[in-house]
Amino acid sequence: MAVSVAQRLSAAGTANALELRGVTRMFGALVALTDVSLTVRPGERRAVLGSNGAGKTTLFNCITGDFLPTSGTIRLFGEDVTEFPAYERIRRGLRRTYQISLLFNGLSVLDNIYLACRGVSRGRFSLIRPRRNEALMHSAEQLATAVHLIDVRDTKVAELSYGQQRQLEIALALAGAPRFILFDEPAAGLSPTERRELIEILTNLPAHIGYIIIEHDMDVALRVSESVTMMHNGRIFKEGRPSEIESDPEVQELYLGGGHG
Amino acid sequence: MASTDQLTSRVDASGKPHKRAELYGPANIPWVYWVLGFILLLMPVVASNFVLFQIFGWAFILGMVALSLMFLGGYGGMVSLVQMSVAGLAAYMVAVFGHSGVVQISLGWPWWLTVPVALAIATLFGTITGALAVRTAGIYTIMITLAIATAFFYFVRQNYGVFNGFNGFNQVLPPQLFGVDWRQPVPIYYLTLFFATLAYFVVIYVARTPFGLALQGVRDNPRRMAALGFNVTAHRIAAYAFASFIAAVAGVLLVWLNAQISPGTVAVGPAIDILVIAVIGGIRHPIGPFIGALIFVVLRTFALDVLVLVGIPGERFQLLVGLAFLAIVFWSPDGILGLWPRFRDRMRAASSLTAERDRRL
After folding, report:
1. Which of A199, A212, A219, B32 has its CA 20 to 30 A from that of B76?
2. Which residues of chain A neighbour B222 with C-beta distances below 8 Å?
3. Is this prediction's ipTM beyond 0.90?
4. Interval A20-66: pLDDT, tens
5. Which residue of B has its CA nearest to A87?
6. Coil, helix or strand for A175?
7. Does A143 touch chain B (CB under 8 A)?
8. A119 touches chain B (CB under 8 A)
9. Which domains, and CATH codes, for chain B?
10. In the β-sheet with A79-80, what is the strand arrangement from edge to edge?
């Protein structure tokens, strides 16, 4: 047992956090992703940019396992997870947030986070009520503090402001011991203050946690990432450092040209 | 017929900003529980044997079956019409393994062996049904469970080897435990009251356990639950297992109360009655099914007399039940339970208006 843990750790050290090879996803005749290959190192922070319909969210859905790719392979920390159901990938350290908040509106903030913590630990079917001094409840409260929601921890999610719901969305992705996170437009609809808080949360994540962030706000995207992947029409179109991407004439024409320039 | 949306409408675990689980002292028990508990415990002092046996006994049992539907529908977002069949199978198994008037089939096992075996078989049946049903949603879940309930009815009616076909089993009596004849009105009143109360509090408790919270998460957002590491399918099947166990316990009580079990008990009509009971009472809270069951049993018992009184043939009692159902779905989609918050809000509005007026004066 000890050997296998050590092996897994060393494997995690050498393997890429995420490795996509030739991932294609079709919806009927529509090709949403075409032959996408992508490699992200452990701890790397990557922004995925592209116009609407470029296939960014489809890419996330394939990586999470919300649906399977039509062809291609997905490896997570060296392990082939192409056919794994979503929950198996999550239990291996993958996390994600959603562009449109997917929260549990009837439950309180703390219960939402507690569920997220419970999802990646044992006792998902436990018939014993959680106690306030329970370790998981503790980590739920810590997470609530980290995303500035501790003051509203007993409020029902339906009663939260939009910005607070977005923060909760992030808290759910930080539960347990995440190793790699997919952020789908976390800054969308946030006020300037909330954006600053978001950037702070992202840059303060422990160094071993890598992520991919989809973000339309270039200001946020380029500040929180060390590498950028540009997508267009379901294909990867360009990869590079933020500065290279920003100054690339083709990128400017395609993406930044329209209104952002 | 209420839409699936109403049936699976959201239930929050506690209804209010909740107190934490460790607050269990008597001081934290709401006064409603004290009053209700007092009334129910002292009921045999005032109520006739007929009321104890035919009204409350039945209401507690049908309430438990409807509670199992409420658990699946309210917390899990899954409407199952198979709950009465699960209860019926438990009842049949008590007759088959234990004692009954049909000596050529009944095995005559002691009750302490018969009851666990009956519960296990019925729970297994409900769980397998769940495993088939959880891959579908909404109207399709209803259809699959209705199909299984219907198939079960025809099966027991046509199978004479085990289920004794059309006749079923009679003289299925509860054990004479502690020197008490449990089929006497007062003992069976307390017996059914005890298990109904137990089932009620177990459901209340489980709703706030990790299992129950996760089930509500699955109801609200299955995709997100998967993205949090939960196996959504397994969770739904486990919910069926839990609900089926409650229905199975009710089934054992049912056969003891009724002293018989026949295909009529598990026909399509009774299966739908359970849904009607849950909807009349309200599926937002576990008390709803019991309120619904009490109303249903009262209507079923007395509608006949009322109808005869106004010159309509007595066998049309379903007409009254149907009208009551229609009225409730029409005016209060959340069932009788839904009336309470509305009444409270109106009282509050009224009192704040009077306060306003007082201030002006």
Report:
1. B32
2. none
3. no
4. 999 999 898 888 899 999 999 998 999 998 888 888 899 999 999 98
5. B229
6. coil
7. no
8. yes
9. 4-360 (1.10.3470)
10. A30-40, A18-27, A71-76, A79-80
